[in-house]
């Protein structure tokens, strides 16, 4: 079972500025380092830790080398990995230059089996109010949709503040509003104002932001 916490936080920017919203995020117990993973894999496979370490290192080098050559490289049992980028689009070919590249990306595409495993895993949500007190627990009854980041539309206004837009830290805003007369509800709220800022929109200017980006 995956555990999620929903914390009530004051929104400082965006469409819900000045109101409290419940922000959900996965509850991570700890980070398992490489040594622990290799040790466990060696125990499960019946081979020595040294051999497992050598195989792990060799596979990592192969994946890095092939991915930087432009290949989408399979990671056995998990999926595939490739490199991509975010870049501004321009209308004039003479304006094409490396400076248009805003960031380089590592794109991981999970296998069908891995996505099904995640979709079938139950989620328990624990809600905490603005004072840090637990106010509710609920077990998920969602459809178990697993997002494929190979086809995501990531808004240029990504953030870490939970203000109603998509973000990169795994948090989702939920319309659980302490005042039901202020437009709360229980629907997921993903970027309530899609016209703010730039975005990965194939190069259109959108709402006064910077030119959009094309993703690879």
Describe this structure in words.
This protein is α+β, with helices and mostly antiparallel strands and 216 residues long. It has one domain (2-33, 81-215). The protein has 3 helices and 9 strands. The protein has helices spanning 34-45, 49-68, 112-119, and strands at 2-10, 20-26, 73-75, 79-88, 101-110, 123-128, 134-139, 172-174, 213-215. The strands form 2 sheets. It has a 5-stranded mixed beta sheet with strand order 7-6-1-2-8, with no helix packed on it. Strands 3, 4, 5 and 9 form a 4-stranded antiparallel beta sheet that branches. α1 (34-45) crosses α2.
Features:
216 residues, alpha+beta, four-stranded antiparallel sheet, 19% helix
Entry summary:
Helices cover 19% and strands 26% of the residues. The protein is an alpha+beta fold and 216 residues long. The protein has one domain (2-33, 81-215).
């Amino acid at each position: 079972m995956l555990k999620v916490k929903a914390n009530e936080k004051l929104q400082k920017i965006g469409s819900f500025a000045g109101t409290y919203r419940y922000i959900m995020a996965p509850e991570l117990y700890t980070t398992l380092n490489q040594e622990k993973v290799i040790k466990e894999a060696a125990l499960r496979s019946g081979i020595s830790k040294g051999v497992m370490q050598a195989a792990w290192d060799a596979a990592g080098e192969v994946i890095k080398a092939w991915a930087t050559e432009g290949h989408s490289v399979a990671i056995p049992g998990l999926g595939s990995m490739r490199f991509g980028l975010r870049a501004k689009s321009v209308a004039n070919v003479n304006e094409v230059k490396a400076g248009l590249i805003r960031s380089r990306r590592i794109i991981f595409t999970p296998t069908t089996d891995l996505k099904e495993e995640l979709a079938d895993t139950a989620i328990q949500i624990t809600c905490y109010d603005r004072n840090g007190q637990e106010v509710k627990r609920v077990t998920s009854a969602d459809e178990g949709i697993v997002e494929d980041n190979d086809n995501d539309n990531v808004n240029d206004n990504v953030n870490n503040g939970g203000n109603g837009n998509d973000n990169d830290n795994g948090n989702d805003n939920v319309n659980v509003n302490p005042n039901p007369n202020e437009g709360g509800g229980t629907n997921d709220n993903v970027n309530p104002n899609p016209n703010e800022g730039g975005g990965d929109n194939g190069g259109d200017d959108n709402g006064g932001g910077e030119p959009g980006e094309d993703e690879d």
